[in-house]
Design brief:
two-stranded antiparallel sheet; binds zinc ion; 15 helices; 4 strands
Length: 408
Amino acid sequence: MPCTVVAKIRLNGIKIFASCLLLLASAPIQAWNGTDHHAMGHIPLEAVAQDWELKTPCPIRPINSLLEKLGQLEPSLGDLWHLSDFIKINPAVAWEQLFPEELGRTSITPLEILQLHSTDPDDGRDQNLLIRDARGNPHFAFADQLWFGSLLGGNSQAFRHLEKPPFSWSNRQATFGFPFRAVGEATSRAEIYYQLARLAFELGEDYWGWRFLAGSFHYLQDLHNPYHSGQITPKLLRKGWKAYWSWGRKGHKELFATFAHIVSNSHRFMETYLEKNPNYAPLKGTDTVDLPSIHELALLSRDSSNKLFPALTEAVGEITDERLEGPHLFNSEREPYDDPMPYVFHGPNFDKAQAIIQGIVQDRFAATGRVLRTEVKLILQDRSIKEDPKLILQTIETLVSLHPAIEP
Ligand SMILES: [Zn+2]
């Protein structure tokens, strides 16, 4: 048998396996909801904003102002399509879409930009990234998309907004999943947007510098949700197996699609349940993390959240009734949304599990506050040191190439 045929069969085998495993941890595409992202964009910085000059207005600039300077630096980057292609995002991004709070204004503070635009990466730029074969059929454009399943629509951005660390024996419950290597691009996206911010600042485009930093904020915020830094635990795998035998196979659901359904229900319930009574106080503070780079900051965000994934999913399992393990897919995506309260189960372990969930969420919010303050501190330090913009472009290129596009 020719090698190419063997390779093709192997690839198809992996695809079938992966498409069965798909979405084990995905489903709700937002780590925390939009309100949470906005809150996380400014509450951590309130206490330092004055000292760090985050309340000093900067002029709102059109994207063309940045593109002109980029084009002078690198002629192939002087338009939106090429810039989008350079960082491998969907070119149909409405870059200049403003929030109602910005309309009619000529300037805005960095604090406001970080607050409003930390939802930018949820605008569709990481969605519907596909390639077409000679027959016009769509295929995944990046290797890790395979492990998150969706090719189109909101869930197709999951591979950029989640990241599971590589499997490790010392942390095997939390790092369990498929494949065993690290999966997802959230840490490298946080770094790419940080470097874009540096580049924009270096080119004198402060507004876009803060906009890109808000983008980096988003991925770091996502990574602080344990459901976005883990895939499936052995315990959830067992629940999924039970669900498959009791209703999945009868409803013609694939075994691994049933697993995905179980994890999604837990994830979606947790986020909507927390929305009922959000507590943003732990985001506040002035403390930072003693780390020298965005790379280490992103890995810290991922790994510290991942460690909490088994405890969080277990506690959510304790306070929810068995319907979340049934065939109904909890809807937190489109109206009318499911109300989480009817699914709450007041069993003997309710208080203890509830305390664990609250503790983990508060821990993650406090960590988010520290990490985001640290990121702003790092960019302010970097801004004070002159850097060759071409070198920053090279750094971005290297980061993007860590997850190369699949050749058609
Ligand atoms: Zn996200």
